[in-house]
Specification:
elongated; 10-stranded parallel sheet
Length: about 150
């Protein structure tokens, strides 16, 4: 059987396959090969996907996330491991963000550590400072000559 409903057909990595609705509450471990959108609440646990996680403005999420891109517009607290994190207008974020790339809109409340991973720079070596740097010193200005007092 081929086509849209084939059992072995894999979704596109950016297709949203899992939706936690606005009236839903979830706790536990969630693994998926496609993107995940959260409109409701995640109370604890772990979310893992090689695709994207979208946390909308109605969502309250308290868990750890491993994904390609995590876009947050709602409330999030936890640890994120991702290629990119986007904190969008109105988001409230706390925890630790371990990322390769980071973006933040205005009107974001963030109480989180952002760790840009060093493995993203590859073999680039930063220049070393000189061993005996020469620091120029400006000469002190000459004192002004006194002006004669008027009699």
């Amino acid at each position: 059987m081929t086509g849209l409903f084939a059992r072995n057909a894999r979704p596109e990595p950016d297709a949203i396959e899992v939706l936690i609705g606005a009236r839903a509450r979830f706790s536990g471990q969630l693994q998926c090969d496609a993107s995940i959108r959260i409109d409701g609440a995640v109370d604890q646990g772990q979310i893992e996907t090689p695709a994207n996680v979208i946390i909308t403005e109605t969502a309250t999420v308290q868990c750890d996330i491993t994904a390609k891109v995590v876009s947050i517009r709602g409330k999030f607290k936890g640890i994120i491991q991702a290629d990119r994190v986007e904190l969008l207008d109105g988001s409230q974020v706390g925890g630790v963000l371990n990322v390769n790339s980071f973006y933040m809109d205005d009107n974001v409340v963030m109480r989180a550590a952002v760790n840009i991973r060093a493995d993203t720079v590859g073999d680039i070596k930063l220049p070393s400072p000189p061993t005996n740097p020469t620091i120029p010193v400006a000469a002190a200005p000459e004192p002004a000559a006194p002006t004669p007092a008027a009699e």
